[in-house]
Amino acid sequence: MRAIQVKEYVKGPLDLQVTTLPTPSPSPSDYLIQIRSAGTNFFDLLQIQGKYQHQPPLPWIGGAEFAGTVLAIPTSKSASQARFKVGDRVFGATQGAYATHILAPEHTLLPVPNGWSFEDAAGLFVTAPTSYGGLVHRANVQPGDWVLVHAAAGGVGLAAVQIAKGKGATVIATAGTERKRQIAREFGADHVIDYRNTGWPEEVKKLCAQHRTGNGKAGVDIVYDPVGMIDASLKCVAWNARLLVIGFAAGKIEKVALNRVLLKNVSIVGLHWGQYARFEKDTVGTVWNGIFDLVAQGKFKGTAFKDESFVGLESVPRALQALGGRETWGKVVVKVIDEARMVWLLNMSKHLSRFSHHPRAASGPLECPYEVITIAIESSAPGIAGVLTVRSQGRDIITSCQFNKGSAFSEEERNVFKLHGLLPPNIQTLEEQVQRAFQQYKSRPDALAKNTFMASMKAQNEVLYYKLIQTHLKEMFSVIYTPTEGDAIQNYSRLFRRPEGCFLNIKDQDRIEECLCNFGRGIDVDYIVVSDGEEILGIGDQGVGSILISVAKLVLATLCAGIHPSRQLPVVLDCGTDNKDLLNDELYLGLRQPRVRGDEYDRFVEKFVTTARKMFPKAYIHFEDFGLHNASRLLNQYRPHIPCFNDDIQGTGCVTLAALMAAFHVSNIGLADVRVVVFGSGSAGTGIAKQVADTIATDTGRTKQEASAQIWCLDRPGILLKSLGDQLTAAQAPFARDDNEWPKEKGTDLLSVVKEVKPHVLIGTSTKPKAFTENIIREMAKHVEHPIVFPLSNPTRLHEASPEDINHWTEGRALMATGSPFPPVERNGVEYEVAECNNSTCFPGIGLGAVLSRTQILSDKMLVAAARALASQSPALQDPNRPLLPDVENVREISVHIARAIIETAIEEGYAQEKDIPSHEEELEE
């Protein structure tokens, strides 16, 4: 196992190192636990320096709180005798939590509450009972009491705030920064005070005077003090007050003016939970039952610090440094992953690149009696490098895009595969081929011609195709994807040369299984992208041409996440088209009929999904560019049962949420206060709104309805109102306002909404060019210091406003992200690079995580985790003048971070089905 072992005392946490130790074996009295998350505590900092009152004998493993999975029960117990069984999710406290494995006796373990992550559970064992035991059993908190909680944004502080509120008390919270006071509010504090202001006791008294009546009520009833502020607190307590001494985080033992204790009939009691649990054993169960009751009632949630991620044991020193430096709030928790899994997660793309060519490509008409030969594909292109085993030769080799190496075939390969006479004599390296191909690419007159050239190359030499793009990714990205791919889709039937993907049409539903059989067996496909072509890239119904969007998405899955192209399947569901230009085009290749809708359409989609799941049970299904009235409906129908994803809804929501998280950090806006206006309530707009609402609800404890009330959505009729009735889609309905709340005299257009709401955030997904006018942006900028403006419609010609205009109208104060690439804007003589809110930074990593974990479903929690992972890579976190999202050139590393977040969350939620993830480094190397 891996662990942080202390062999000698250190000066500080940054001196700690991770080491490898023997994995412990189950003992007669202890469970063997695989640790998923470990909590940090101030006493850890003292302990590693030899300054704590309880020091274990050297050497010892640091950390005391953890959450994880039972690997083995005590050897002295049968399965029926053990309280926990193998696979159970537990949390507890035992010395040695900064490790991948730990032995723990049964009395130190408790079950992880339903719906809780390992991260939140790892911070529960000390904070919750300390606060519950103190407030309920020692201070006897009652409904109507006023409770003063010091250091309220700390781990025990946030627990105390929630417990006091859960018991019907009013809470005054103290904290030293605005961010921490905001956190205290989000966890339920009624009033917040800055304790750095020496007059804070008077502020407490004023609050009580304003809100409390009766003799002896000119102060608080209970003081909860983990800091060392009892003496000052005596100035603002009520008659018969109870003061709880929880700790001395300030670092010194204070002196108390006992005259105030006498005059106000005050009781001062202490609580050290470890000692209390030792001497009051009969009370421990009652305390935990009370805590779990509050959890079940939704009155107590996890307090894990979310502003910075600490992943892997290597991050423990930084986590302790942040804790000791008072940089954090809540409970600082480290996500612990064992070494083999960490190596595996960080090398997922490499792991995937080792796929050999599947035998299906060497069977059938390509099979011949010659000896089986291998082609070495020497490429650093993602998902391509490796060895392909083939049974073909001659023209069969060079006409296969997977096998063809062109002029790079060696002399030996030319002899073995009978290639002499089929190739020019000069043998070249892949790098030389890339150089020639790039010159050919540059010679094409426009972006569409370049796109066509690349499609032709892909059909001839897959390795060269991916290597060329990888070498010039930033320059070529807009050609192989948006916005140029939209032009290619519009011209699909006229530019058609060679089919790629699976074409299913609604008139031939009985052949779906036969058609899918052409693409392999059950283990052959990992990733399916399917489109019905009704709403493509802002250009509407494109019928059968939408096969190209499925192809393009899978190209990015390979480029950005390393998923092998031979294990992908692009699909189009041809239901006809309502595009009159296509119906009247004699060269159109799709069904020449109006688009089929209703029950027949639903049966077609159902048959495809059912058949695809039957034939490729491990495959992840990615829905792409379905129409407004089908996208959300189909996603909601299938996502509870299968691993599926809609990029227009969830991908757009995820990448936009990541950009917003970065913008909130820069502008110092809390989720509890943010006001968001979304202009354009189609699949993308409502997807963004839902992701933002889900995150507000998760992070603030508000209901989904309360969170949705912070978002104002507009569409063609203007602001969405409940009176629109059946005109609202299922995705729009949660964001429709009551008509009483929004009378007609307020106005329903965008400018009127901005004037009324004064939003922090304005998002455009309308495909209405220039919709964000100067008046609208200037009105927004009057009320917020840093307007967050995201014109996301694409292609470029459909954007709601240009970054240059937004920058000018806000005097350089706006935080921006766009849906298509734009040149930098100038701010104070310096170029400001505008972030591109491109789904390609998000969906490949999500797909990779889903494929590798074989998750049963893709949950909301996984998507929020993906957004957080992407936001954590924002350059703006280090420099507010840099873009909100990372550069596309770094997309491989980004995808690894996102995939890791998906996998970790899938494991935590119990949805991961993959059993072959290596658990030991030796197995990984094999």
Automatic annotation (TrEMBL):
- Cofactor(s) needed for function: Mn(2+)
Q: Which GO terms describe its molecular function?
A: lyase activity; malate dehydrogenase (decarboxylating) (NAD+) activity; NAD binding; zinc ion binding
- Extract the SMART domains matched here: malic, Malic_M, PKS_ER
Q: Which GO terms describe its cellular component?
A: cytosol; mitochondrion
Keyword annotations of the record: Lyase, Manganese, Metal-binding, NAD, Oxidoreductase
Stored InterPro entries: ADH-like_C, ADH-like_N, Aminoacid_DH-like_N_sf, ER, GroES-like_sf, Malic_enzyme_CS, Malic_N_dom, Malic_N_dom_sf
Residue intervals of the Malic enzyme NAD-binding domain: 649-907
Source organism superkingdom: Eukaryota
Per the record, the coiled-coil ranges are none
Which CDD domains does the entry link to?
Answer: QOR1 (cd08241)
User: Boundaries of each Malic enzyme N-terminal domain copy?
Assistant: 458-639
PROSITE patterns, sorted: MALIC_ENZYMES, QOR_ZETA_CRYSTAL
Q: Which GO terms describe its biological process?
A: malate metabolic process
All copies of domain Enoyl reductase (ER), residue ranges: 12-334
Family classification? Belongs to the malic enzymes family.
The protein's assembly and partners = Homodimer.
Record protein name field? Malic enzyme
> From which source organism is this entry?
Aspergillus oryzae (Yellow koji mold)
Organism lineage string: Eukaryota, Fungi, Dikarya, Ascomycota, Pezizomycotina
